[in-house]
Structure prediction request, 421 residues.
Amino acid sequence: MTAVGGRDSADAGAAGCANPLEALSLEQLRRRRSMKWRAHPPDVLPLWVAEMDVPLAPPVAQALHEAIDAGDTGYPAGTEFAESLADFASRRWKWDGVAVDRTAVIPDVMMGAVQVLRLITGPGDPVIVNSPVYAPFYAFIAHDDRRIVEAPLGQDLRISLDTLQETFRRTRERSGAKGKIAYLLSSPHNPTGTVHTAQELTAVAELARRYGIRVVADEIHAPLVLPGAEFTPYLSLPGAEDAFSLMSATKGWNLAGIKAALTVAGPEAAADLRRLPEEVSHGASFLGVIAHTAAYRHGEEWLDALLAGLDANRALLGRLLARHLPGIGYARPQGTYLAWLDCRSLGLAPEEGSTDLAVVTDLSGPAKLFLEDARVALSSGHIFGTGGAGHVRLNFATSRSVLTEAVTRMGRAAADHSRRL
Prediction:
């Protein structure tokens, strides 16, 4: 774990665009009806689920208003969505590997993961994940009758190539030469905010090739890489030709309630993608396709302003933790807007709970303490699998005032708890 703290970045967004994280008051946010703001009583500050406290990016709002005003609310058609992603990837990541004829529209990234895993594995087959990892990986995989195999992250919260290789080797040995095995990769990694390097991912691709394991990369947080790190599309690497990527504007532009995403197949996975049932693409909302396309095509200035605000909040969070919770381990995230906090120093009882999707709000250990005593809602670490117990995930995509109040409350609750010990 790194020490808390860090240098602040500019308060204003890029290119003169205002910081979206400072656009809405707490009163305005409490009028929202989404899960983040309705799951807890109004005295709770919700920093748990991955929704941002921002207004819609103006280009996205304009595109939706135009569609509504025109009554353009029918079925999706055409390839504009895939073309917009291809153009965005070329501009943003200098990657020209999004071939429109190797893409498919999907309802959202997790439903896409399920559908792709159905193409390349069968019931009972193993799916490898790097724990602690996004909790719905466990639920969706298990509900589809696949078997989770964990390859835990290293102590530095990065992919341990030695652990991954041993997990690949052992799983291949147990599955036999012809057994089907998949590896569901979170990139950037949720909940730690780790951005995998090109070198790390190249090594992953080489290992996957060596052991005959198909990679499915959840790259939903790809637009949210903060200063100091660089996103590498998994399909851009040698050895990833038979892999899949799952991409969406959902996280970068806060569009979780406007469903749409894309799966992108590597050249050697194109035949698999053609077996995707046609009805899968019908699950995406046409308004979602419109919104995501507008985000990729016209939302970069807004995204840059958001990233500047997130960078400033990342530094602010470090300072607040150093002041109010100095015993908490803070691994400074390189991407996403999620912070992974090691609260084991609080000396709470071991956590128990489920990683089932139905209980992702299940609270234990430090998350329970902070909710009950500080009235701050965080995600409980145990739902992220092995390595998550004693941790919490904090969403810092909010205003400076909300973030400051939340960590201040958490500090008081931790101090009161220590006095009771």
Summary: Confidence is low (pLDDT under 50) at residues 1-15. DSSP finds 14 helices and 13 strands in the chain.
